[in-house]
Amino acid sequence: GRKFVVGGNWKMNGDKNQINEIVNNLKKGPLDPNVEVVIGVPAIYLAYVKSILPDTISASAQNCWKSAKGAFTGEISPAMIKDVGCEWVILGHSERRAIFGEKDDLVAEKVAHALESGLKVIACIGETLEEREAGKTEEVVFRQTKALIPAIGSNWDKVVLAYEPVWAIGTGKTASPQQAQEVHAALRNWLATNVSAEVAAAVRIQYGGSVTSANAKELAAAADIDGFLVGGASLKPEFVDIVNAKQ
Ligand code: 13P
After folding, report:
1. Interval 190-209: pLDDT, tens
2. Which of 62, 124, 164 to mutate to test the pocket of ligand 1 (most atoms within 8 A of CB)?
3. Distance in angstroms (rounded) separating the CA atoms of residues 144 and 161
4. Ligand 1 pocket: which residues have CB below 6 Å?
5. In ligand 1, which atom is closest to the CA atom of 170?
6. For labeling, which of 12, 152, 198, 211 is most exposed (least CB within 10 Å)?
7. pLDDT value at position 4?
8. C-alpha 210 to ligand 1 mean position (Å)
9. Separation between Cα atoms, residue 218 and residue 35, nearest integer Å
10. How far apart are CA 229 and CA 28, in angstroms?
């Protein structure tokens, strides 16, 4: 079976006081031991969070560059993320794509380098409202995933896919369990054809977009939803309930 995996993407939020509160709350839990928990921390706080986080919870960067070091002012590398004891990076988030202009090919280069460097990757995909309304949801999600196939190579066991419809991110408009399940199942089916049956069966696909403690249980019950990538609610005590939403 696929181990349920819940990510908390803090985005550009939190200061040391708030981080202490969030981590204390996670320590108090209790967190379902059958669920993998990964928190996505602003780069500047990764080392600090790692120093106060229990070993049972992983810390992730929210972005990185596509090479190990060099003249790339302002960037961080997978090697640096690993050096401060973290194992994960979130790549291709819709905010990186929309605000910072990251295209499929750059996301793929980042994914390739992160995996080669030994990081695990949460790779984000998802359609905009315009694309959904034009009936292009699957076309977009398949295109974004296709770009990752050569980058991932034989490292699918180090990758979690996060389906995050852009119209559901930060809007309070979550995809219904049916809407999310439909895309997750279509994507898994597409992976069976375009990668392998083994990868399709094993890869974990998270849902992200306005996940809260109020809607997490129903979403978690969908057959092809293997976890969540949580933004706003990951800063709140209810994140514990989201981690524990899988029955
Ligand atoms: P919200 O949970 O705030 O909608 O954000 C989702 C997200 O973008 C997680 O990466």
Report:
1. 999 999 999 999 999 999 99
2. 164
3. 11
4. 9, 93, 164, 169-170, 208-211, 229-233
5. 4
6. 12
7. 98
8. 6
9. 17
10. 21
Instruction: Give the tens place of pLDDT for each residue, 8-48.
Output: 999 999 999 999 999 999 999 999 999 999 999 999 999 99
Mean local confidence (pLDDT), 133-144? 98
For residue 144, the model assigns a pLDDT of: 98
Burial class (CB in 10 A: 0-12, 13-18, 19+), 177: middle
Which atom of ligand 1 has the smallest separation from the CA of 233? 2
Token output for 51 = 């120093």
What's the pLDDT at 110? 99
Alpha-carbon torsion, ordered 228, 135, 192, 111, to 10 deg = -60
Q: What is the average pLDDT across 214-243?
A: 98
Distance of CA 235 to the CA centre of its chain: 15
Residue closest via CA to ligand 1's atom 9 equals 231
Here the tokens at position 112 are 């390739």
Spatial separation of the C-alpha atoms in residues 98 and 103, rounded to whole Å:
9
